[in-house]
Amino acid sequence: MIKFDKVTKTFGPAHALQDISLEIHKGEFISLVGQSGAGKSTLLSLIIGEERPDSGRILIDDIDVSRIRRTDIPYLRRKIGVVFQDIKLLPNRTASENIAFALEVAGEKASVIALEVPKILEMVGLEEKAKSFPHEMSGGEKQRIAIARALIHKPVLLLGDEPTGNLDSINAWDIIQLLLKINKSGTTVILATHAKDLVNSIKKRVVTIEKGQIIYDQQKGKYVL
Q1: Which one of 15, 53, 77, 197 is least enclosed by Cβ atoms within 10 Å?
Q2: What is the pTM of this model?
Q3: In whole angstroms, what is the distance from residue 222 CA to residue 200 CA?
Q4: Distance from CA of residue 166 to its chain's centroid?
């Protein structure tokens, strides 16, 4: 599904990623681990076309995203859901409105939005929070709404960039359980994190990055740094 072929990305004199080769298959759940500054976020940014590699190729379903036109990037991103540590919900919109907004900006019909938003709220277990504003929700609830917003386009790939970073251990594990549920439904999930205990509990493939290079790739791995 995703192939990094000898990808290098630099920022000034520093290598964020150096000669990375990696294959990710449809339906996988991958924990992408490493210390801050190891290159995890850069790798995710390259997948969504936010950054371009200095050399090498990045293929998603045989589309070379390293050479895709800027005008086509929004269409690529509709196939990819992204969840950040910084949740970025709109403070003056309810949970339902935050999710609906992702469809509104894509020009979706109001009838479709009215049908799909309740479904996704049910999937993340927050039907009762449909009319709640972000300041009325807990950190874990807000992160679930952010995941629902990322899923509303029915993406084939979900990226999580430290989505549990601001949560306590109980809420963090709830988010991991939700991501595993999403993965079980067929969505490929890439979770960038440095939460050792969570990674070790997931018992899925672990790719470890250090100083811009992949140093471990384990099918049922652990956080080894």
Answers
A1: 197
A2: 0.91
A3: 5
A4: 16
Residue-wise pLDDT tens digits, 58-114 = 998 888 888 888 888 877 777 899 998 888 899 999 999 999 999 998 889 999 999
**What is the rounded distance in angstroms from the CA atom of residue 198 to the CA atom of residue 223?**
9
The percent of the chain in helix, strand and coil, each rounded to the nearest 5, is 35, 30, 35
Burial class (CB within 10 angstroms; exposed 0-12, middle 13-18, buried 19+) of 80: buried
Distance CA 56, CA 37 (A): 21
Tokens of 97: 């409105």
CA contacts within 13 A on the Cβ side of 225: 21
Query: Is 34 in contact with 210 (CB distance < 8 Å)?
Result: yes
Rg (CA), the chain: 17
Tokens 């997948």 correspond to 47
The residues near 109 (Cβ < 8 Å, ≥ 6 apart) are: none
Domains of the chain: 24-52+77-218 (3.40.50.300)
Give the span between the Cα atoms of 191 and 161, in whole angstroms: 6
